[in-house]
Each structure stands twice: as C-alpha cells, then as structure tokens.
Design brief:
By secondary structure, this protein is of the alpha+beta class. The protein has a single domain (2-117), classed as Arc Repressor Mutant, subunit A. 51% of the residues lie in helices and 16% in strands. The protein has helices at 2-7, 16-22, 57-73, 75-78, 93-99, 103-116, 119-126, 136-146, 150-157; strands at 25-30, 36-43, 46-52, 83-86. The protein has a 4-stranded mixed beta sheet with strand order 1-3-2-4. Strand 2 (36-43) and strand 3 form a beta hairpin. Helix 3 packs across helix 6 (103-116) and helix 8 (136-146) crosses helix 9. It is globular. The chain starts with a helix and ends with a helix. Bound molecules: zinc ion (ZN).
Length: 161
C-alpha cells in the first residue's frame, strides 16, 4: 500500500496516527457516546478526524484508519458534510450486500484492515510455519503485535494475504 511505503513502515504495529498527521489531517480525540466510533470531515479546506477517546485503544486505531480511508477515498462525500460513524461492524464482505451496508463503509473498513494489517507485514509475522486459525492464543498474539482487536485480526486473516 502506497501510504505505508510513503511513511517508511516496515514493521508492526503500523503508526496510523503518524500517517494521518503526515497527510495534514487534524486528529482529535474526544469522549463521545459509546455508539459513536468516529467522524471525518473537511471544512474550509481543513481536514479533520474525530475519534471516540473512550473506546479501547485498539478500536480507536481502527477508527482512525477507517476515517483516514474516507479522507483518501471519499473526499467529495465528507466535504462540508460531517460523516459520522456509529459502531461500524467489521463484516465479511460476502455478508455485506445481504445486510444492505453502505458501500462507502465497506470500502473504508477494507482500507483500514489492509492499512493496519498489511499483507507483507502479516506474512513476515506469521512466517513459514503458518498460522492455525483455531489457535486462539496465536491469533491473539498476532493481534497484540499489530495492536488490533482479535476480531479485526480474524476478519483480516479470512482473506488471502
Ligand atoms: Zn465511515
């Protein structure tokens, strides 16, 4: 992913806050209602990401990456209109159409997943021995290394690297 190459990222965890700031986006953490994950908007040319400071740090990282996706992929949709994310779930892509999820959110979640758990870094971390998806401890250890939730890691691992 070009964002990672630009930032010189070669090991986990991916420094998502640094990447956001390097793109001139203002990152704000604030205590929000539990159902709110984050928001993205561009006002008078100022790029802003807001994240719920009360959520678990791993979830905040995913929210930062998700909102960054909107700034990279959906500029028109977040200009002069605040995009608010309410507890987005990381769904398997094949469940998405059935559940009528907004395609923008699907794109942003896929972007966030690949940004935080890039194929090359995952392959390095897993090594030649491979990983047994039924081995909860191994999946948890990998999630800790990448500073993501175990469910986000399981979701990522369900797609090819
Ligand atoms: Zn969103």
């Amino acid at each position: 992913m070009k964002l990672l190459a630009d930032a010189g990222v070669r090991s986990a965890p991916v420094p998502v806050e640094r990447i956001v700031k390097s793109r001139g986006i203002t990152l704000q953490f604030a205590p929000l209602g539990d159902e709110l994950s984050g928001m993205a908007y561009i006002k008078d040319g100022l790029k802003i990401i807001g994240v719920n400071a009360l959520h678990h740090p791993n979830r905040q990282r995913f929210s930062v990456a998700h909102e960054l996706a909107h700034h990279v992929l959906h500029v028109a949709e977040i200009t002069e209109a605040v995009h608010v994310d309410r507890g987005f779930r990381v769904l398997h892509r094949d469940k998405v159409s059935a559940e009528g999820i907004d395609p923008l959110e699907v794109e942003a979640n896929a972007f966030a997943s690949e940004l935080l758990m890039p194929a090359t870094l995952l392959a390095d971390a897993i090594g030649d021995a491979g990983l047994d998806l039924d081995d909860d401890e191994a999946v948890d250890a990998l999630a800790r290394k990448f500073k993501v939730s175990a469910s986000a890691m399981r979701n990522r691992l369900s797609y090819s690297l």
